[in-house]
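pasting for the record
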Amino acid sequence: MRCIGIFGGTFDPIHYGHLRTAYETRAKLGFDEVRFVPCANPPHRQTAVTASEIRLRMLEAAVAAEPGFVIDERELARPGPSYTVDTLSSLRAELPDEALCLLLGMDAFLDLPSWHEWERLLELAHIVVAHRPGWQVPREGALGRLLEQSRTAHRHDLERARAGRIHIESVTQLEVSSTELRRSIRAGIAPKYLLPESVWRIIVETNCYAQQAET
């Protein structure tokens, strides 16, 4: 059974924190590919998102040289809020026999009960949580119960079923924030060593973060 990582986000901009997480989880867990799914209308975000055409260009530039990294544009083509459950439902309909692994940071995983129809996610995919030092794995509440029922420490369990398991994988600690990158760029500080040079060239060309306000 093929095993596919699904990595969603606004990628505004994509940076080395995103890319390293995707690279490490693919290498350690044996994914056949990682699909980057840029979000069109993030349900939990109130501030403006950079135009999808620019974010897509940056993403294409960032992953162009990495075999096994692909871009899936389905959320950009779909109207309304970009609910993850809808994306996974669409992927599952297209890939009925593949193991799908939704990649989340621990911060996103801890916020999972606020997501639209979050209880359905494990019906459609596995969840792989990229864990960094400083975050605590939940022991109680809805997520604690979910982990007790579904957690596995064995990567091969992700290949043996299409969905239904939660795996926590330690990754390199790269605390890069897209929000802080945008603020620094507006302040005139180049994001050297934080994102690919090809992405920086697009930011300079489009001047996409010059006037964008943060809240």
